[in-house]
Amino acid sequence: MEYFRLGNLVSIIAGFLILAVLLQIAILGIKSIFYPSMLVQFWIIWTLSIPAFCFYYKSSIQKRYFMDYFAPLAIAITFIGILLASYHAFLGIELIVLGYIFEPIAGISIYLTVKQFVIASNLFFWGAVVYTLGLPFYLYNISEIAILGDVVKLIGLLMLSQKIKGGKIL
Predict the structure, then answer these.
(1) Three-class SS state of 164
(2) Tens-digit pLDDT profile for residues 44-65
(3) Count of the separate structural domains present in the chain
């Protein structure tokens, strides 16, 4: 469970950074996505996806194939998306959203591994779903859905971190 705990920790850090990005875009508008400072944050979040995936991959998660197939797909698509966004191509943003669609699917492995913690696992999983579904609404200046989803997902991850200490489920 130590690798799972580390994956969870990296996911929490990424979740807070994602929340910061979501709030900045909500305040500054959709065009702020192309600001250099925002792109740097995208790259940092993307970079965190690598150790998070590796830690979860090394852990003994259930239904591993969800993580095995959908996490690398999400990582690859968002990489291309951020690369294109770095060149101010709006297609890059669309690809980032597409890549994030696979996050909750990959998260099924995590959800099933910790489903005995009903509240925490459901907050994590359904928060990720709401976050993902809320991303396209940014195009219509509706940021609250994705922000709420990310906050709920973070609460679930934080609750799970309290259940996993020293590599053991408490």
Answers:
(1) strand
(2) 999 999 999 999 999 988 888 9
(3) 1
